[in-house]
Structures are given as structure tokens and as C-alpha cells.
Design brief:
Order of helices and strands: HHHHHH
Oligomer: single chain
Distance between the termini: 33 Å
Structural class: mainly alpha
Low-confidence stretches: none
């Protein structure tokens, strides 16, 4: 009975879409937002809390292999189908908007209406239109 319930639960969880991630999510980690440090600065291998591959010198993005490694690493920060339980979204969200109390890098999202936040929600929810 427990195995059946677990199988049913796993079947209902959305699968994280790599192509959507590479095209829409990963660029967020590289973008400069006024008043904020780019995510890649603190969250690459050379940063304080690394889960993203370090960019090669002079590179403006990751190689296909690095993107796949980033995707694999970031999956531990999300709960597919439940964006509000996913650290990737809640950690950099303002507490007044429902986010965690602590994030050294500042609050990348002032509200859940932030376009980048919505992109992450779509990816984690499995609502990528693919």
C-alpha cells in the first residue's frame, strides 16, 4: 500500500524541464539587477554558497555540460510542483512577500509579482507550456 501511494505521488509531481531551465531560468542567475549582486557571484563554486558552476574567464554563460551540472545541483533547492516550499524561490524573496527571514545576498524579489520570480514559479510548477 505504501509503495503504491509513493508511486502515485511521484507520478503526480511535475518533472523539471531542462530546456526551459536553460533558456529561461539559468539566465536569471547571470543577470544584473540594479542594487543587487548577481546570483552567480555568491552561488558559483568560488562563491560562499556554491551550487552553480564557476564561469570560465571572460565567459558570459555556461557551457552545455556546466548547465546540466547546474540543473542537477539546483534540483536539491526546489520541490517540484510546490514553489512556495522551494528554497530557490523563498530564500531570496522579501519576508513581507512570504520569503525566508535570512539571505546574505539581499532580496532579489520584492514580491511574488516579480517577473523573475514568476519564471521560477512556472518552472518549479511544471507550467512551462512545453
Amino acid at each position: 500500500m505504501i509503495l503504491w501511494a509513493l508511486t502515485l505521488l511521484l507520478a503526480q509531481s511535475p518533472v523539471l524541464d531542462f530546456d526551459y531551465y536553460k533558456t529561461n531560468v539559468e539566465p536569471i542567475f547571470l543577470e544584473r539587477k540594479a542594487g543587487f549582486t548577481r546570483c552567480v557571484v555568491c552561488h558559483s563554486d568560488g562563491g560562499r554558497v556554491g551550487f552553480l558552476a564557476e564561469l570560465e574567464s571572460g565567459a558570459e554563460g555556461w557551457t552545455a555540460e556546466q548547465s546540466r551540472r547546474n540543473f542537477d545541483a539546483i534540483q536539491r533547492l526546489v520541490v517540484p510542483g510546490d514553489p512556495l516550499a522551494s528554497r530557490l524561490l523563498m530564500h531570496p524573496l522579501e519576508p513581507e512577500a512570504g520569503g525566508d527571514e535570512f539571505h546574505n545576498g539581499g532580496r532579489q524579489f520584492s514580491s511574488q509579482d516579480d517577473p523573475w520570480f514568476k519564471t521560477l514559479v512556472a518552472w518549479v510548477s511544471g507550467e512551462t507550456g512545453e
